[in-house]
Specification:
alpha/beta; Aminopeptidase; Nitrilase/N-carbamoyl-D-aminoacid amidohydrolase; 2 domains; seven-stranded mixed sheet; 14 helices; 28% helix; 25% strand; elongated; hydrolase; Hydrolase; GNAT_dom
Length: 516
């Protein structure tokens, strides 16, 4: 407690009134002398008139000693990078959005002689209560980092991390973190005249866990964090369809227990069933395997509904008339099924199995984002993911089967490039183990992973999660779709925005490529 703090306290929390302006201005001039001082009379009075419940003060007897100024804003706009000036309209009017779905904390300031009484926390608690009462989704704020000039040998990110670890005390950021705010991103040029922060600020967010969207159907609520499960599936001989299917169900059940939104099986994950047929004729053996496609799809669709998880059924050979395709199946947890055929067929598939390439491509709408599926070799053709990205794909799933490390590396390197080029997540999943009695599927090599774009909001190596090579295991990763939106608009580079469409064009001439 400050030694100069008055001893005869009589504190009261209330909303500001127009008559309070002289005291508020005097307090702001003292606290913000380094960045412009007080707001104008007209600015503050307009804000009190437009949003009186958001302007909160603490008075001691009749003296204003602490203030929190707040506006309503649109979350989608101000949860991304912005500047302080973005909140200021014409004639220094503060931008208040009456129909906004979040609060924005403009300023909090406390008289120096009353510091140590935790009045800032009291104001923040009042703001949080207001957020809950108005059923708003969050409180956002741009937080100065006022001690950064004393640690300019650090990068801003290093400074923030040092404050988070309590190695450095920053009066504003330390206070925000202690009040349950999270740093969402670093903002450069937020307040250029802020010399102490060297122009930087943090975008801070407090989420209202009681928020319930109004007037929005449940099925229209967009998930922002998606959990994906990737199965690095071990090929093993099986003596019956039922035995093989029970293994599939085991992994679906396990991923559902982890509350995954998706689980992906590898390419040709049903290959062990080939061991139940005649291996002397590979043309006939792969067509024997295709006879299981409908039964497997029906069973997986049932699992998707029963276990409440979207299942990407790697790929399976399937007959359409006299033509054999290699199809991936999306079994949604709402009971619907989508199909994505493999478009580019490898020489081995074409020569030994006489598989044909499909001619349809599409982005799938799901309850956990818009996704694309490309089977193994298809990810090595950058045009396909680019077309999917142009149709707002968030996550690309790539079930694959490779027998050697060099084959795997082709898939891996291309998948990583596709994540960067198209500003999306890419999940790859393959199989391991051996099937000595099944020709052409006898050995496997895989290291399943989830890749991200390469920017500050993502892991430094752009790998969200990665498995141990050649070991059966399940990989789980949480993917933040909001980070993709931020990247596409304000990343270090913005591939989709900067593409020179005036110089070249990319068109899909096949069927599909529409929400399915």
């Amino acid at each position: 407690m400050n030694n100069d703090t008055p001893s005869d306290l009589h504190l009261k929390l209330r909303n500001l009134e127009s008559a309070d302006y002289p005291q508020v201005a005097q307090l702001m001039e003292a606290v913000y002398a380094d960045i412009g001082g007080a707001w104008s009379h007209d600015s503050l009075l307009a804000l009190i008139k437009e949003f009186p419940e958001g302007q909160i003060a603490i008075q001691d007897n009749s003296r204003i000693i602490a203030v929190a100024l707040t506006v309503k804003c649109r979350y989608d706009r101000f949860s991304r990078s912005h500047t302080y000036d973005d909140l200021i309209g014409r004639r220094d009017r503060i931008r208040h959005a009456p129909d906004g779905d979040a609060l924005y904390g403009m300023d909090v300031f406390v008289s120096r002689e009353y510091r140590g009484l935790r009045l800032g926390r009291r104001l923040y608690d009042a703001r949080k209560e207001l957020c809950r009462n108005l059923n708003l989704r969050a409180i956002l704020a741009g937080g100065r980092i006022v001690k950064y000039h004393e640690h300019a040998d650090m990068t801003p990110a290093e400074y923030i991390e040092a404050v988070r670890r309590r190695e450095v005390h920053d009066p504003i950021l330390s206070f925000q973190l202690a009040n349950d705010f999270e740093v969402k991103r670093l903002m450069k040029g937020y307040l250029p005249e802020d010399e102490k922060s060297l122009g930087y600020a943090t975008l801070l967010e407090w989420n209202n866990i009681l928020y319930e969207p109004e007037g929005i159907a449940v099925e229209e609520i967009r998930k922002t964090t998606v959990r994906v499960g990737i199965l690095q599936w071990q090929m093993r001989l099986t003596d019956s369809f039922e035995t093989w299917l029970s293994q599939v169900e085991y992994f679906v059940d396990s991923m559902a227990d982890y509350q995954a939104d998706f689980v992906m099986f590898p390419e040709f994950f049903n290959a062990p069933l080939m061991g139940m047929g005649d291996q002397h004729n590979q043309f006939e053996a792969i067509r024997f395997l295709a006879t299981f496609a409908d039964r497997i799809t029906e069973a997986l669709s049932h699992f998707a509904v029963t276990y409440n998880i979207n299942i990407i059924a790697g790929s399976m050979p399937a007959m359409e008339g006299d033509v054999l395709y290699n199809n991936a199946y999306l079994c949604r947890r709402d009971g619907t099924v989508g199909i994505q055929p493999k478009i580019h067929i490898t020489p081995h598939e074409r020569r030994d199995w006489v598989i044909s390439g499909g001619d349809s491509l599409q982005v799938f709408d799901t309850d956990a984002g818009r996704i694309g599926i490309l089977i193994c070799y298809d990810v090595e053709f950058p045009e396909l993911p680019r077309l999917l990205a142009k149709h707002a794909m968030d996550i690309l799933f790539v079930p694959f089967w490779t027998d050697t490390k060099n084959g795997f590396l082709r898939v891996q390197r291309c998948a990583q490039a596709r994540a960067i080029e198209n500003e999306c997540y890419v999940a790859i999943g393959g199989s391991v183990g051996n099937l000595p009695q099944v020709q052409n599927v006898d050995i496997q090599y895989a290291q399943s992973a989830v890749y991200s774009p390469s920017d500050f909001a993502f892991p430094h190596d752009a790998i969200m999660a990665e498995s141990t090579p050649n070991t059966e295991m399940a990989l789980v990763a949480d993917l933040d779709l909001d980070k993709l939106a931020q990247l596409r608009h304000q990343g270090s580079v913005t591939n989709s925005k900067d593409r020179r469409d005036d110089l070249f064009d990319l068109r899909w001439l096949g069927s599909g490529l529409k929400p399915n």
